[in-house]
Write a structure and sequence with these properties.
alpha+beta; 2 domains; globular; 4-stranded antiparallel sheet; Jelly Rolls
Length: 207
């Protein structure tokens, strides 16, 4: 249940150049000067405040994001107003409402900042244009998709095959420090357990 989707090479990603270098390293292909210049011209930065929304239910997702610093939550909302946390992600991670972004249709997902968060992003139109102009960048898109599929496959496996205690243990080893920032009920929902169960396991784990 660890949050990283993307492999981390240990280098901080602070600037757009850092991000371009990271994506080139991830792809295993040295980007051409033309591709690097194109990416540098279209990648934008954005800062969102704690509890600010990047995407609301019913909106169309226009951007794919990369977390430079911070924590984002994706969740779904039932008709009665109750919420289901799908994931909690922090840097370095790519964040996208897959169904809405790639189909350019209304989203059933909601993306919200848990703390003040700094992001890089690129629009759907710009990404599609780069794929056409620089086919080698499609390898990056394919690798990002693979990492997402692996992530969700492991999420499903952990939810179906592990006990509540095991799910908590897997998550806590890598991301227990997030409890300083993330409400306990959100983490409980993410791990598919009742808040009371989460609290009981957490107290037992602390001992």
């Amino acid at each position: 249940m660890a949050t990283p989707i993307l492999p981390h090479n240990g280098r901080p990603i602070v600037t757009v150049i850092d991000l371009i270098d990271y994506l080139s390293s991830l792809s295993g292909v040295k980007f051409s000067p033309e591709l690097r210049d194109r990416l540098f011209s279209v990648v934008r930065s954005r800062s969102v405040k704690k509890l600010e929304f990047l995407l609301e239910e019913g909106e169309v997702s226009r951007h794919i994001f990369f977390i430079r610093r911070g924590i984002l939550r994706c969740y779904y909302r039932h008709e009665d107003g109750s919420e289901v946390t799908a994931w909690l992600l922090r840097e370095p991670n790519v964040v996208v409402a897959v169904n809405s972004f790639y189909k350019q249709k209304r989203s059933f997902e909601i993306i919200q900042a848990i703390i003040d968060t700094d992001l890089y992003y690129i629009s759907y139109e710009e990404l599609e244009a780069i794929y056409k102009e620089h086919p080698e960048f499609e390898r990056v898109g394919r690798l990002l998709t693979i990492e997402y599929l692996i992530f969700w496959s492991m999420q499903l496996f952990n939810l179906r095959m592990h006990s509540a205690e095991e799910r908590f243990d897997l998550w806590y080893k890598d991301d227990g420090d997030m409890l300083v920032y993330v409400q306990q009920k959100m983490v409980a929902s993410y791990l598919n357990m009742e808040p009371e169960t989460f609290s009981r396991i957490r107290k037992r784990y602390a001992k």
